[in-house]
Design goal:
Strand 3, helix 7 and strand 4 form a beta-alpha-beta unit. The protein has 181 residues and is an alpha/beta fold. Helix 3 (44-56) runs parallel beside helix 5 (77-88). The protein has a five-stranded parallel sheet with strand order 1-2-3-4-5, covered by helices on one side. The chain is globular. The relative contact order is 0.12. The protein has nine helices and five strands; from the N terminus they run αβααβαααβαβαβα. The two termini are 29 Å apart. The longest helix has 14 residues, at 118-131.
Length: 181
């Protein structure tokens, strides 16, 4: 699923609870996507509640993290990424934390066709895996048929979170074929 309510059950029109997702055998749910943070004003604390609701139903959270272009260029963006991770995982057990999947999606790259350099990706993935050594880390942010060969050379990437590409079946199939090589 692409979202879950931060509340358990109740009269929250438009929200889908973790128990509702579980009733449909959902196994993974995205939380913290930059669009939800921007347009729905989700906070780090909201995301933490969503992660907790998912674990109550044994659903694996896919926690999206990423920095804006301004954060990348003008601040210690790694401190921001660390805050995203730390706040989202607050109050979880070590076992739960080891089950969370991190999806690194540099906000400045999503939907633009522009991706970080190989060195930038390796730097961020090494940073995340140093903090969470047993956690799988996915790359998202304009992964497509034009850059999958380069992305596949980065051993730190455990998989991909695909957005716009998933809406183009022929290109998606080409992407998958290249990944298998």
């Amino acid at each position: 699923a692409e979202n879950v309510s931060s509340r358990k059950d109740g009269a929250y029109t438009g929200e889908v609870s973790a128990s509702q997702l579980k009733s449909y055998d959902v196994e993974y749910t995205i939380v913290g996507h930059s669009e939800r943070r921007e347009y729905q004003k989700e906070t780090f604390e909201d995301i933490n509640e969503k992660v907790k609701r998912l674990f109550e139903e044994n659903i694996t959270p896919i926690l999206c993290i990423g920095e804006s272009k301004e954060q990348r260029e003008n601040t210690d963006f790694k401190a921001f990424l660390e805050e995203e991770i730390t706040t989202a995982l607050a109050g979880l057990t070590e076992e739960q934390i080891s089950k969370v999947i991190i999806a690194y999606e540099p906000i400045w790259s999503i939907g633009t066709g522009i991706i970080p350099t190989e060195e930038q990706i390796i730097d961020v993935f090494d940073f995340i895996k140093e903090k969470l050594p047993t956690t799988k880390v996915l790359y998202g942010g304009s992964a497509n048929v034009n850059n999958i060969e380069m992305l596949n050379t980065i051993k730190q990437i455990d998989g991909y979170l695909l957005g716009g590409l998933s809406l183009k079946p022929e290109e998606l199939q080409t992407f998958l074929d290249i990944m298998k090589q």
